[in-house]
Design a protein that fits this description.
- The protein has a single domain, classed as Thrombin, subunit H.
- It is globular and about 85 Å long.
- A 6-stranded antiparallel β-barrel has the order 1-2-3-6-5-4. It has a 6-stranded antiparallel beta barrel with strand order 7-8-9-12-11-10.
- The longest helix has 37 residues.
- It has 4 helices and 12 strands; from the N terminus they run H-E-E-E-H-H-E-E-E-E-E-E-E-E-E-H.
- By secondary structure, it is α+β, with helices and mostly antiparallel strands.
- Strand 1 and strand 2 form a beta hairpin.
Length: 254
Amino acid sequence: MKLKKSIHWGVAAGLMLANVSLVQADIKEDARKVFADQAPSVLGVRGVLKVSITMNGQPGGNQEKELWSNGVVVADGLVAVAYRTIKPDLAANVGNRPGLKLESELSELKLIDASGEDYDAKLVLHDEDLGLAFVALNPEGDKAADFKASAVDCSKDVEVLHLDELIGVGRMSEKLRSEAQVNMGRVSAIVKRPRLLYIQQGISMSKPVFTQKGEFVGLTVALKNTGPVPVVLPAKYMRKLIDQAKEKQAELKK
């Protein structure tokens, strides 16, 4: 009798493992499709950060650093980016040093598409509290007329739950041929106040995040008051700024 029970338990365990494997295979297959569908909307963002240093009012030197980030197209020629990836918080990096003053300027902004082609761009709007910035194609750029990139659908409020799988899509640096990349994360916490945020593990900063169905959830950003840990800022907060960013973008054409 004991042998018979052991056989039954063994069969049940085998079936459970087989079901888990099938579910995991389905998740990966969904993620691959989302990745293939959404990667064209993800661009690389390159720029140069010029830092001027003064100490007790005296010049302390200048530095230049090349920056690389990811962005997602949210409207024609308009790209949403995690603000801190293109404008790092220098004061937080060096700590509180009396007499030390750091000023930074972002320049030489470029949008990089899947083919590795770069296009002149400008920062048109940012919200430091939300950790969100918008970079627009410069219509006066040499190759502006050739720019083509489809936008993600930001019009829906997509709700995700604890332990839901998330899919993040990014683009690697030009040293790695600007290849698209995909990561998977899982919702570990949901912050509801003062604004809705999804805490996840597995997807790095400035990447658009999608559900297994390919629905756009939001962008990973660092909020001003929560440090460098990337959180998913839902699309509804982005929509509030997209219209303002479009107005700023339109001024580039004047």
